[in-house]
Model the fold of this input.
Amino acid sequence: MRPIVIVLIALAVIGWSAPSWADYSSTAAEVGSAAGSGLGTLIYAPLKATFCILGGIASGFTAIASPPTAGKVAMASCGGAWIVTPNVVRGREPMKFVGDTTPTPSRSTAAR
Done:
């Protein structure tokens, strides 16, 4: 009987102290932003894929006239964010729909 009482007291002390470090509102905000992120990604990803496919088609037509411009069109349409993160839902980061069109320096130009 005595060991059972000790175990019950220990569980009561641990059970009461464990949730004290967590704030309910922060946990609810985390769960809400994660759920919003998942739902937002389910809606956003097919739209982004459509935009990328159409940009690839446009890039193919643009390549006839100007290959460097075609690369910029492809980078702009297929670049950027493909998922909605919890930080975007919370407003801590901007959503980047269109990618950067500035080319990254290659190794040969960076070494000069």
In short: The mean pLDDT is 78. Residues 32-90 form one domain. The chain is about 70% helix and 0% strand. The radius of gyration is 25 Å.
